[in-house]
Design goal:
205 residues; alpha/beta; Rossmann fold; 5-stranded parallel sheet; 43% helix
Length: 205
């Protein structure tokens, strides 16, 4: 891989034993195997009050919101495992996106999302594996300038889906598909950003 992409990996769940936290680490392993520089973060380490425009106007973006923005700005790709809450996106994930989307002083709108490459997956104890929530997450990300790869995986009956140490899915085909999402984001990100760098160099001559 000519260009080493940097990929940020996290789940939209706060629960310590979240199946989605376990799932995104499998995709992360796929990205790493494909040559990416990967970073895992836990949204629980970045507690944020619900987005409030008045708070932003009076106090600016909170410290944890800025930390998330800086992480997103430092990475070209994103892997997100998305829990489904009441057939939609989790409040923690939506709130993190809302705060990170706010422009810092001198920054353009949606600076930490525009042009990024994302891969999505989900896990749920239910029969659909969180599939309905992925529709909403994909729509939000694409509307704020993120290119979401077409590949996605939903893991149903998640309590019985992982091996003993949660390093893989018992269903080998599904495990390979999750790893492929990580690899796909790494490959697309590498190609696009390598081309962008090449064009920038050509333009500076």
């Amino acid at each position: 891989m000519a260009y080493t992409p940097k990929i940020l990996c996290f789940a939209g769940s706060l629960r310590n034993d979240s199946f989605n936290k376990k799932l995104v680490k499998i995709a992360m392993a796929g990205a790493k195997e494909a040559g990416a520089d990967v970073t895992y973060v836990d949204l629980k380490d970045f507690p944020l009050a619900v987005y409030d425009g008045d708070v932003e106007a009076e106090q600016g973006i909170p410290e944890n919101g800025m930390k998330l923005k800086e992480l997103l700005l430092a990475n070209q790709g994103i892997l997100i495992a998305c829990p489904e809450y009441n057939s939609s996106i989790s409040a923690a994930l939506k709130n993190a996106i809302d705060w990170a989307s706010r422009p810092a002083k001198g920054e353009g709108p949606l600076a930490c999302f525009k042009g990024k490459i994302a891969g999505l997956m989900s896990a749920s104890p239910g029969a659909l594996g969180g599939l309905r929530g992925l529709v909403t997450v994909r729509s939000i990300l694409e509307n704020i300038g993120v290119m979401v790869v077409t590949e996605q995986v939903s893991v149903s009956q998640a309590a019985q889906a992982f091996n003993a140490d949660f390093s893989a899915l018992l269903d080998e085909k599904k495990d390979a598909s999750v790893r492929k999402i990580g690899a796909r984001v790494a490959e697309v990100t590498s190609k696009l950003f390598a081309e962008e760098q090449s064009l920038q160099k050509s333009g500076s001559r």
